[in-house]
Design goal:
alpha/beta; Rossmann fold; six-stranded mixed sheet; four-stranded antiparallel sheet; about 30% strand; binds adenosine-5'-triphosphate; binds magnesium ion
Length: about 260
């Protein structure tokens, strides 16, 4: 298995604030990671580095066997699929669903564009179909519900056939059925041998899809625990990450946590 991510002592400092504090992290091909931690823990910052959008202040970030700082990020970024609220906000209101997905391949296919257009459209359609959005092709992105938007964003992130897929809170704003649908789809993606390495950021244990293999818990920029998911998602580790005594339940790969009653 090759290294998808290899972080050594990665820190991000802004003014007097340490957003990430000397993070060591290895993600191998085929692994499915979930990153959990309270608001402000540094999860999005970690994902920004993994997505080659941000340079560490200190330390080394290896991404797809390249090193940030000595590689052209514009060559690296198309190899990484990223879905986040910040990216969704940049989508023009009137852009149609099909276009939102197809345009993710521009800049990858480059100068022989015309030959790729039909192929790109077919791939975009296939992905939208897989994510249950095939009847929305001509709908403006802005008119979609939150759950529909999330699925379009994931299809977009997969469009360029990335080697690494980064999802920053894909469950945010979804209702119960929407969340369960997403968890099921992500669980299927996790089980797909052809799928890229996955890193999912969430606040909620209920959103951890069965089949995810590894977890990292962050608190105030530092790693509380990381490794195989069953070893990391324990009452002790979660209570420490969220700074609150928690009661944890696991059933068939689904997790729930509530405050411990004294
Ligand atoms: N440019 C900056 N200058 C100072 N502080 C910053 C800057 N950018 C981010 N931060 C702070 O860094 C911390 C980590 O932010 P980050 O977005 O990575 O957290 P997060 O774990 O994704 O939080 P959330 O769960 O709320 O999305 C936050 O406290 C944030 O306010
Ligand atoms: Mg965040």
């Amino acid at each position: 298995m090759s290294d998808v991510l290899e972080f050594a002592g990665v820190s991000v400092v802004r003014g007097r604030k340490t957003l990430l504090d000397s993070v060591d992290w290895q993600v191998k091909d085929g692994e499915r990671w979930v990153i959990l931690g309270p608001n402000g823990a540094g999860k999005t910052t970690l994902l920004q580095i993994a997505g080659a959008r941000l340079h560490p202040t200190k330390g080394e970030a290896g991404i797809l066997e390249e090193t940030m700082g000595s590689v052209d990020v514009f060559e690296l970024r198309p190899r990484i699929g990223l879905a986040s609220a910040a990216l969704a906000n940049q989508i023009p209101e009137h852009e149609t669903v099909l276009n939102v997905v197809v345009t993710a391949s521009y800049g990858v296919t480059g100068r022989w564009r015309e030959q790729y257009e039909k192929m790109d459209e077919r791939r975009a359609f296939r992905l939208l179909n897989q994510w249950g959005m095939s009847t929305f092709l001509n709908r403006p992105f802005a008119t979609l519900s939150e759950g529909e938007r999330k699925r379009v964003q994931i299809a977009r992130a997969l469009m360029a056939d990335p080697e690494l897929l980064l999802l920053d809170e894909p469950g945010a704003g979804l209702d119960l059925a929407g969340r369960e649908d997403l968890v099921q789809r992500l669980s299927e993606l996790a089980a797909d041998d052809e799928a890229p390495a996955l890193v999912l950021v969430t606040h909620h244990l209920e959103e951890v899809p069965p089949g995810f293999t590894h977890a990292m818990l962050l608190r105030e920029g530092g790693v509380v625990a990381q490794g195989p998911i069953a070893e990391v998602l324990t009452e002790e580790n979660l209570s420490s990450a969220f700074d609150m005594p928690l009661e944890l339940k696991e059933d068939g790969g689904r997790y729930t946590a509530v405050a411990r009653r004294s």
